[in-house]
Write a structure and sequence with these properties.
- The protein is α+β, with helices and mostly antiparallel strands.
- Strands 8, 9, 10, 11, 12, 13 and 16 form a 7-stranded mixed sheet that branches. A 4-stranded parallel sheet has the order 2-1-24-25, covered by helices on one side.
- The longest helix is centred in the C-terminal third of the chain and has 22 residues.
- 40% of the residues are buried.
């Protein structure tokens, strides 16, 4: 019998749907497990990155289902946004038609992969039935003062022709199209995420199983700073300039003040200045440059002397005021005291502009810092050159100095700015606000929701296209009934993705955003899977949104995702011709461009990208090899958290392995005739039977442990080793007892393989005579007594010195050996409260912990 994946996969897809294998409902008798991958944007075709993300999630979902959990595993579409609108403009098609056509195509592709989704729960965020509730949430926030409109300087993308949130500007460029971002002053809507800064920080304690990298990125973005606000009087003017500093202990070393070009006092300085032209030119230049310069230590720091001075309140010294491109109005007060001796940025600036550098902190070890300073000393220490505070510990001096000043106070500051959600494009959820000459800004009536997007015959790539649709703009005031106008901005698409996971809990409710009972059962998400690129944008916004919905009474929890896995990217080598640019692999022969014969330039291995022409078409893979092969390769080639390098040889190797498994089972079907599931626990078994038992239970243990630890590649490796073992057995020499165990091994192999390659597993399961769906089988349990072989001694060292010996199983895994060593009473006293810098493991012989 030949392995024919296309026929097998088509057959079982139909069977799973007809028998509703993956449909899930609330079942209070079972423990729930909500597994969710970040839903895709319907761009038209899935890519290998999608397949990797969803295959990882599907393994966990199937595994948990077989372990008795009630699995919620849904799929939907993040369907609003600029790509759809731009594509519609280019192709002269309505964005809705473009989007729903893409959804239809991508849905078919995803179903071919055998992903265990409950498709009844599917929705697209551009469905009015979905964004109608989003509009209601917005109105609730408006009524609570959490949504507000103000004129402000915003990030403007000239290509996308819309506003970007601060989080959507990366290195001064649009996160989506990489155009250089400029600044504009516009009326925009904001959500008060800054009001939740402290809760967002505090609740990170609940996120025990989030990657440290993601938590660090969010903490840095929120940017909590504990410091002080101190008034510096401007010499010659009746004006106190309030600065924010995290290091009031260094105030005696402040030798200049840095001022944002957007600070309100700048107008006063300009009015009094004799250097208006040059100051104005510097201001305009800074405003037009990258506003993230303050966050980039590699960017050149620039300043301009205003010809004004401040009075340092601790010593009455006059210090110059500089306009500086690294001071942001959005952080602190827009003015900072600059201490070159104890801040690297200030040190470089002082050197550049020949400003005074005064050391006021020395290290606690009494070592003198060589003068003149070659670099800033940024650590803690003892105060010097600080008047009455000399000799004081710098940490204690922070409080003492603030207390001694009349116009100073302790304060907590945050880098986090409010979330700007206004977008000046068509394809988004309309903001449900009406402007009335009599009543002012008025929210739409709840009963009138959804405020639907108007139909359009043709779109142009222009700002605020809804401004041009008179039938949409003109309406009646919900309060007084007089003529009024609608807001013509649409919401940032990250609003839609900030609550979609709650909507999945209920099956398309019509008269409410979700059934509260469903949400209470399924939420929070037990395992969330997606890319590290969403660490701030999507993940931070979602955490904020959930806290708001809790405060509004919609839900009773305040963190959406208990566990987070950030999978690596799928990468492939790139090829480039000096004449023809990026080339597809089929455009390269003998390391030459087929178009011109030039030697190709082999680029680095990079994320698959259409622009780099290094993509692999999933449809071609599925057509040639089948979904199981695609899944197996992408799960085996690399640990989930690491980047995966595409390999044509790897995909062929995965296919050969599945053919091998298929032959192994079909060549031994004769042994399953009349075979029943055996009970071997109470048998007196011979050495050959013991060896089969050992390999069965040892493999179950390894695969179970590795799936639980998301080491899916090593779980597959264990299955491959088990396949090799079973293939090498000469069945003709086995007695009846061993034949029973052998068939048990074959059936166990099929079950262990099923989360990874469900189609072939389902086919083989029924071929050996099983009547149930393999997805509904219980996951096999291993018995420890069958995996105990010989005992060995492992020496345990601390920094190279022997401190203990472990007596353990000869087959113990590395992770288990290290864990046992750490729990050894003799070792605990050497590693408690110390950081283990390195763990050295020599299999079956030695463990060495290198500690501080």
């Amino acid at each position: 019998m030949n392995y024919e994946p296309q026929n097998i996969e088509k057959k079982w897809l139909k069977q799973w749907v007809e028998n509703k294998i993956f449909e899930t409902n609330v079942d209070n008798a079972k423990e729930k497990y909500y597994l969710l991958e970040m839903f895709p944007y319907p761009s038209g075709k899935i890519h290998m990155g999608h397949i990797r993300n969803y295959a990882i999630g599907d393994v966990i979902a199937r595994f948990k289902k077989m372990n008795g959990y009630n699995i919620l595993h849904p799929m939907g579409w993040d369907a609003f946004g600029l790509p759809a609108e731009n594509a519609a403009i280019s192709n002269n098609i309505h964005p809705a038609k473009w989007t729903y056509n893409n959804i239809e195509n991508m849905r078919k592709q995803l179903k071919k992969l055998g992903l265990s989704y409950d498709w009844r729960r599917e929705f697209a965020t551009c469905d009015p039935e979905y964004y109608r509730w989003e509009q209601q949430f917005f109105i609730d926030m408006f009524n609570e003062g959490l949504a507000y409109k103000k004129k402000t300087t915003v990030n403007w993308c000239p290509n996308c022709k819309t506003v970007l949130a601060n989080e959507q500007v990366e290195d001064g460029k649009c996160w989506r199209c990489q155009s250089v971002v400029s600044n504009r002053e516009l009326d925009s809507w904001f959500l008060k995420i800054s009001d939740y800064a402290e809760r967002l920080l505090d609740d990170m304690e609940k996120l025990k199983n989030w990657p440290e990298r993601v938590l660090a990125m969010q903490k840095n973005w929120i940017g909590k700073s504990i410091g002080a606000e101190i008034d510096f009087k401007i010499d010659g003017l009746d004006y106190n300039l309030t600065v924010f500093t995290t290091r009031p202990d260094t105030i005696f070393g402040a030798t200049f003040v840095g001022l944002s070009v957007k600070h309100p006092v700048v107008d006063l300085l300009l009015e009094k200045s004799k250097d208006k032209k040059n100051i104005k030119a510097f201001i305009d230049k800074v405003i037009n440059e990258n506003q993230n310069v303050a966050e980039d230590i590699d960017k050149e720091k620039k300043g301009y002397f205003t010809n004004f001075y401040c009075i340092n309140p601790v010593n009455n010294k006059k210090i110059p005021i500089y306009l500086a491109n690294f001071v942001l109005m959005e952080y602190g007060t827009g003015a900072i005291m600059c201490v070159p001796a104890h801040d690297e940025r200030d040190f470089d600036f002082a050197k550049k502009y020949n400003l005074e550098i005064i050391q006021v902190i020395k290290p606690k070890d009494e070592e003198e810092i060589e003068l003149p300073l070659k670099e800033a000393y940024t650590g803690e220490g003892i105060l010097i050159n600080s008047g009455m505070f000399n000799g004081l510990d710098s940490e204690k001096a922070k409080d003492e100095i603030v207390k001694s000043l009349k116009n100073a106070k302790k304060i907590v500051n945050y880098r986090l700015r409010d979330w700007g959600i206004s977008r000046q494009r068509y394809w988004g959820a309309p903001i449900p606000i009406i402007y009335c000459d009599k009543c002012g800004i008025v929210p739409e009536k709840i009963s009138n929701l959804p405020v639907k997007l108007p139909e359009v015959d043709h779109l142009e790539k222009t700002p605020k296209p809804l401004d041009k649709i008179d039938s949409f703009i003109r309406t009646k005031c919900p309060k007084c009934g007089k003529d009024a106008k609608r807001d013509t901005d649409t919401m940032d698409t990250f609003v839609e993705s900030s609550w979609y996971f709650i909507r999945f809990c209920s099956i398309n409710p019509k008269d409410k955003p979700f059934e509260k009972e469903d949400v209470q059962y399924f939420m929070p998400v037990d395992q969330y899977i997606g890319g590290i690129e969403h660490a701030i944008l999507h993940l931070l916004y979602s955490r904020f949104f959930i806290k708001v919905l809790k405060d509004l009474g919609y839900i009773d929890f305040d963190e959406p995702f208990l566990n987070l896995l950030t999978q690596g990217m799928v990468c492939k080598e790139t090829y480039r011709c000096k004449t023809h640019g990026w080339l597809y692999p089929e455009e390269v022969e003998d390391n030459k461009c087929i178009h011109c014969g030039s030697e190709i330039i082999v680029g680095r291995t990079e994320k698959m990208s259409k622009s780099k022409k290094n993509v692999v078409d999933p449809d071609n893979i599925l057509k040639k090899y089948g979904a199981d092969t695609a899944r197996l390769f992408i799960l085996f080639a690399s640990p989930p958290v690491k980047d995966l390098e595409w390999s044509d040889k790897g995909i062929e190797g995965a296919h050969r392995f599945l053919n091998r498994v298929y032959r192994l089972i079909t060549n031994n079907l004769i042994y399953f005739k009349g075979n029943k599931k055996n009970s071997i626990n109470n048998k007196n078994i011979n050495d050959e039977a013991k060896n089969i038992l050992y390999n069965i239970h040892y493999t179950i243990m390894r695969v179970t442990r590795d799936i639980n630890n998301f080491q899916l590649n090593t779980a597959i490796a264990a299955i491959m080793e088990f396949t090799n073992f079973l293939s090498q057995i000469n069945t003709e020499t086995l007695d009846d007892e061993c034949i029973d165990l052998y068939t048990e091994g074959l059936s166990t192999l099929i079950v262990l393989l099923s989360p990874f390659t469900p189609f072939i597993a389902e086919e083989l399961w029924h071929m050996i005579g099983r009547k149930t769906f393999i997805s509904l089988e219980k996951w096999p349990q291993y018995n420890k007594k069958y995996i105990v072989k010989d005992k060995i001694n492992i020496v345990v060292q601390i920094n190279g010195k022997v401190r203990a010996e472990l007596i353990t199983d000869a087959n113990i895994a590395k992770e288990d050996a290290i864990e046992a060593a750490k729990n050894n009473d003799k070792i605990k006293k050497y590693i408690n409260n110390k950081k283990i810098r390195k763990e050295i493991y020599v299999p079956k012989k030695l463990i060495n912990f290198v500690v501080n």
